[in-house]
Amino acid sequence: MKEAYHRDMLAKIDALEEQMNAIQEQIKTSEDEAHRKEYQSHLAEYQAKRDELAGKLQEMSAAHEDAWHGHKNDADTLYGHLSKYMSKVYAKYTGSGGTGMF
Question: What's this model's pTM, rounded to 2 decimal places?
């Protein structure tokens, strides 16, 4: 069960990475330097949140089978924050769900 959860969470993180890559492709074509700088700020925040989640997943993987549920709850919370943040950023840059910057 722990391994299946870990695989599922990694797949979810990969999907978020694809969204960030899509934004990055749009940023490359933008001539607006302010948008590029703002994107770098969003990217840094996203990466920090992602790295925190990845660390929690490593802790969970190393935890004994009886103790991993606490790490799972923490990972779920961190993923929720990361996913919500990414949704906001993705909508901002792509126009998905709102007015995009491009």
Answer: 0.82
